[in-house]
Amino acid sequence: HPDGIAAGAQRMVRTARVIYPRPEMHAAYEPHFQRYCQLYPALAPVFHAAHTSTQTSTSAPEQQQQQQQPQERQCTDEKSKEASRGQSVLQGIVAPSILAADFSRLGEEVESVLCNNLRGWVHVDVFDGSAMCNGNLTIGPPVISSLRAAHPAAFLDVHLAVDEPCKYVDAVVQAGASSVTFHLESPSLRGLTLERLKAGRHGLPAGSNGQQGAGDPATGFVDNVEGARVLASYLKSLGVRVGVALNPDTPETWVLPLIQEASIDLVLAMTVNPGWGGQSLIESVLTKVSRLREASDQFQRSIDIQVDGGISSTTASRAVASGANILVAGSAIFSRGRAAPSKDARAVSYANAISAIAEPLSKKGYAVQ
Question: Which residues does the annotation mark as catalytic?
Fold first, then answer.
């Protein structure tokens, strides 16, 4: 291939279908499955007696195999239940962050990074100028809606680095977000209830003045966890995947209850302070990533662990070795295509950059999307 082996391989492979757990379908199926489990012991002898009488020519080994099939189906159903709870095998994913894209041709930039995988991930940072994103201002629901219209199969991974995520969740979901991640440090999570959320009474607590969380990251987020649980449940009811983000200084211990009870699908460990692209990875966060992976394994939860900030072909291997399976990369992808002479040349450059970042995921044994 004239553009290199990696580009040639990318063009030879396509994703035919990607299936994600759907909590609402699991909830609808669960009562029927439980009823089936209750009735099966009583009905099994009747079923097998009738089956044996009509299949007299069936050999004994074949009859034994047929009798085992309901139990095998039950095991399969149990596996399906586990998958719907987030127990599926993890994928390795590189999510290009459009924060580093050329906004003068954003549609073309997204098309270029998706050219080899129409169902690929695109990381969308929503910053509203609040303290959570250090005053930076990016994009909102209208851009998400435009991206969804142009790329109906893409996985739009929306990161709400905002003080008041409840203000935006309905709008970004309606715009077409596939996954919504909010910060555990968001001060509006304190005291949040489902009633307040639905009534639109979810602003900043009195006296917070936009300060993140409730003070010291080591002790101050105890009240935020219950609010995060409420918001995560609400988002799942809207049919999207849910992530919780942790800033570099926030200990992983605050999110462990949400992992253990399967309230969330993803933990985003920020490897830089949110707000600006092009920062260097904070190496100490990788220790947190390791502890998150160890905890999720201990809880038997196959949760996605995402890292965002300073990820490149150089740092990706360390992030993956620590336990991350989703790598958000912005500058390491988009900066490589700035000098490309054409759209096609940019697409090749982006494909090569994504392949280089994904290589540690493949070596780790992940099925890379």
Answer: 125, 308
